[in-house]
Amino acid sequence: MKTLTFIAISLLSGLLAGAILAIVNQGVVDPFIERAIALENQHALAQGEMIDPVAVDAYRLWQKEGSIATGALLGVSYGALLGLVFAYSRKSLPGKKNFSKAIVLAGIMWVVIYFAVAIKYPANPPAVGNPDTINLRMLLYVAMLAISGVAAIGSALLYKKLESQKNTTRRIAPAIYVVVILAAVLLLPANPDPVTAPMDLVNSFRIASAFTMAMFWIILGAILGMLWDKTKPHETATAKAS
Question: What pTM was estimated for this model as a whole?
Fold first, then answer.
């Protein structure tokens, strides 16, 4: 393994995909955030609270300006994770080229890290949720994420162990993952906060978030796979005979 090349392409893939995610989010997701904040401010004014529009606008501008850096940091983290998992599972993934293999793995990781968790605890726009329950909500989210991750790792190990078996037998592995996720969805506590925002806003925000995160993982997998095929970090350089 060419370690430095492997690290470089993993981090670069995440950096680029994360920056693209941040840019797209400003056009796709941000309008729903603006609407949610406006509704929150209207509710606060109705309750007699004082709102400084200049301070709100300055804060939102700061958020938007920092979103590229935040997206890049998130991308680098996920790029490192995808690179590590890809290096370990590359030979077991379907497809002939690393490009297609990386996209397949990225799709799986979107399901494990985002979609499976969102089934139980879907994303909500700002102003949805009581600040007093944030620790509980974070704990529930992390618990669902951990269950999904551990179940995915266990299913992957079982799938690899059954490599010599027929495809029908190997399907037991993903089936176990689905059963574990369904059990978690049924047994874990529900979100403690009622959704008081308009459901059209909430659902639109959730759909937009799912779309941009799916786009992010596909782009991340595509960039990693393309760079992997080009640099071939899994190949060890051989010394030429003198």
Answer: 0.86
- Angle (CA) 120-104-119 rounded to 5° is 5
What distance in Å separates the CA atoms of residue 126 and residue 145, rounded to the nearest whole number? 21
The tens digit of pLDDT for each residue in 176-211 reads 999 999 999 999 999 888 887 888 999 999 999 999
Within a 10 A sphere around the Cβ of 42, how many other Cβ atoms?
11
The one-letter code for the residue type at 159 is Y
Q: Which of 14-18, 27-31, 219-223 has the weakest average pLDDT?
A: 27-31
Give 3-state DSSP helix, strand, coil % of the chain, rounded to 5.
80, 0, 20
Q: Which long-range contacts (CB under 8 A, 24 or more apart) does 204-211 make?
A: 204/32, 205/29, 205/32, 205/33, 205/36, 205/123, 205/124, 205/125, 206/118, 206/122, 206/123, 206/124, 208/28, 208/29, 208/32, 209/29, 209/123, 210/114, 210/115, 210/118, 210/123, 211/28
> What is the C-alpha to C-alpha distance for residues 226 and 166, in angstroms, rounded to an integer?
31
Q: Span 158-165, mean pLDDT?
A: 82
